[in-house]
Amino acid sequence: MIKKTAGLATVLVSVLALTGCGATGAQAPTRNIKQVTDGVEGQSGSIYIRDLLLVAQPDGSAALVGTFINEERTSNSLTGIKVAGIDATISSASGSFDLPQNTPLIFAGDSADATGYVAGLNAKPGDRVEVVVSFSNSPSVTLSTLVRAKSDYFTGVGGKPAQTPTPAASK
Fold first, then answer.
1. Which of 6, 43, 63, 138 has minimal CB crowding within 10 Å?
2. CA 121 → CA 48, 93, 126, distances in Å?
3. By C-alpha distance, which of 85, 104, 77, 97 is closest to 161?
4. Beta-strand relationship, 89-92 and 40-44
5. What is the dihedral of CA 109, 84, 43, 167, to 10 degrees?
6. What's the whole-model pTM score?
7. Tell me, what's the pLDDT at 162?
């Protein structure tokens, strides 16, 4: 019985050592990952901004990519986006920028229900630009956002929005 237990303990210790699942606890490299995409993340009250980035367009403009989610029961709304001091032209499929509880507002991609366009930005892929996002019932959020090339996963992202209703300018 002692030989079986000792053999099992040796195998268990070997597996933990080989997989890196030892006693690293809170300092484990996988626990310390904060951002797994190129997009930045932010928060204003109960509104979460996920995977926000810009895709540079051939004409010097940029397209907005990102998701906004309100986890509060009280409705809120997106009132404006400024990129490097330039008001973004945004539109939504519904014509509204309301953020009801747990209903995401998605800019770009297969599930998109909104578009964002920044004319004359002239940022190059790899640049970081300041993006200020404003809401009706939450403080504005300022994020340092990465500009990506219109290639690879982002090849189909861009173009001017079909509609141009823009909420009130950011504060």
1. 6
2. 25, 24, 14
3. 97
4. unpaired
5. -70
6. 0.73
7. 46
31-43 pLDDT tens trace: 555 555 679 999 9
Q: Are 171 and 87 in contact (CB under 8 A)?
A: no
Q: Tell me the domains of the chain and their CATH numbers.
A: 40-154 (2.60.40.1890)
21 Cβ contact partners less than 8 Å away, ≥ 6 residues apart: 15
One-letter amino acid of 123: A
- Residue 84 tokens, joined: 């490097």
Radius of gyration of the chain measured on its C-alpha atoms? 22
Say which residues have a Cβ less than 8 Å from residue 63's Cβ, sequence separation at least 6.
54, 55, 57, 108, 115, 116, 117, 118, 157, 158, 159
Helix (H, G, I), strand (E, B) or coil at 106: strand
- Spatial distance between the Cα atoms of 158 and 152, rounded to a whole number of angstroms: 13
Longest pairwise C-alpha distance within the chain = 76
